[in-house]
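Tip: read the tokens left to right.
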């Protein structure tokens, strides 16, 4: 399953809910303001860093760039472009948007 999160973890509990329900082997894609969770400090604070041992985490590169965070991504988070976004959606038979 692919979980798509678009809200900052400081604004809503969506990412925390996603991480609580995601199963090992699932993928999480951070888009829009959710990419703030991909920074070292935020990833620890919201629980993303701990969840990365069983989940594959991606961040949409255009959103990372738009927020000036290119150099602050936590190691292990894979940046992807829009083509990669489409690939993730097609690779996973189930997709859940956390809006």
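Filled-in amino acids:
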């Amino acid at each position: 399953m692919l979980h798509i999160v678009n809200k900052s973890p400081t604004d809503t509990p969506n990412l925390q809910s996603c991480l609580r329900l995601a199963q090992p082997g699932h993928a999480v894609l951070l888009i829009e303001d959710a990419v703030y969770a991909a920074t070292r400090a935020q990833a620890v604070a919201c629980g993303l860093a701990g969840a990365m041992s069983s989940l594959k985490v991606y961040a949409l590169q255009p959103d990372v760039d738009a927020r000036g965070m290119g150099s602050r991504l936590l190691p292990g988070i894979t940046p992807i472009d829009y083509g990669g976004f489409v690939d993730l959606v097609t690779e996973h038979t189930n997709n859940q948007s956390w809006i």
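The chain has a mean pLDDT of 95. The chain is about 35% helix and 20% strand.
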